[in-house]
Design a protein that fits this description.
single chain, alpha+beta, Immunoglobulin-like, six-stranded antiparallel β-sheet, four-stranded antiparallel β-sheet, 9 helices, transmembrane, transmembrane helix
Amino acid sequence: MKMFRIFSVSLLLLCAVAFAREVPVRYVLLNDAAEHDAKFVKIAKDTVYLLPLDSSEVAEIQKQDEALLNQLDPNAAAEDSLAEEKEPVQEELNPVEAAEDSAMVADSLARVDSLARVDSLAKANSADDFEAALLAQENQAREDSLAREKAIADSIQAANDSIRAAEVQDSLAKIAAIPVEEKYIKIFKYEFKRMTNLEDGEAVNLSLSDFVFAELTDEEEPLYPAGNANVLVTSYPDSCEIFINGESLEIFAPDTIRKIKPGKYTISVRKMLKGVDWWGTKTVKIDADSLNKIRIEVERPTTRLTVATIPDGVEVYMDEQPNESILPKYLTDVSIETEPSVQKVVYLRKVGYLDTAVTVEVKAFMPNPVYVELEAVDNSSVVEMQREYDRERTRRYIGRGLLWSSIAPIIAGGVFWYLAERDWSDAADKKTAYNKSAFESADTQKLVKKNKDLNDSGDTKGLIGLGFGILGVGLFVTGFVLAF
């Protein structure tokens, strides 16, 4: 039993994880005041499993933070954007490209320096000032040296930056190659000071031992299948809320249910009268080729279970599984008066269809509609088994009937036999009386006649009682054989 419970819990957790999703969160630990961003995976056995964010997710969170900051302080956000525009943009280069670019820069600087030197010498010669030319040459040589040192430093910095970028890319590639199970950040839940879901800003409940964020389901199931039919619903009294298969359409009678698929539906109306909800319910078949109109009158508040099925004529069993000894009390479509119940099991059965069980909640003073479409059986052997089941149940039903019908003839046979015994006893008394008489007289003849009549009456009643007894015993034996 314990192993079964463990297996069941594990299966539920696996199902939950299969439909779980990862959510970006921001958390703070008890021994660390800094905020950290990560992806929340799950809480399992008081351990929180997180995953590091990738670059795109980090950028998205930064955009969200900037947008929030812009809402709180637009001026500060504007200053930050201007500062970003002023910062030079640096492109990542690999070491080879960086070396080539630095060499080209050095050559161009050398050409510019030589031209500047020639120009300065020409100016010095034209001015016929030898000392000024020497001073200009020394200054130019110093500037050339500084320019070369700067170009070399820039080329080294570019090479270092490209090497660092390559190392970062290699590190990211190695991280991506690690299995997901080994990437988890595992932290005991009591080490967290707080954790916030960045999607909605709500705090994550860390008091749970097992928790995952379920997948978001944006699509809502339609209240009824779409089609080309329309149904005009009227009620008595007017202005009753309209329901279809137990779901409110948020419209009030008289109104039309539009663009519905033809078929069978349970339509209900509700109106509060004298502080109590009054309901009216009908199961209808909607046709697309005719004008569908339905009028429903509300009834006094009663607790009902309205069962409608496709096909019709399905056997309905309430809280008892059908077998050969139980006959159905209801056939669909049917409205059954019952008691409120948190959980009631309805068993449905029909030859040619799979047996179906539905668990429903029966609410007080409501129609509680149940609509089930049974799945047809495409296996002839299963259908034959169902028919044999019905034949066996019919035999048992007949047997029970014979058992009950045997009671009357057995009792009648006993009564007639008792009356016959009384007649025979009286006849014996009369015979004893006339045998004691020594002379034949009128009284003696009367006793002899009375004796004969009583014997004949007793014989008749005894035969009738015997016949009833034989009939009753025969019915009882036959019924017992058929019923069991």
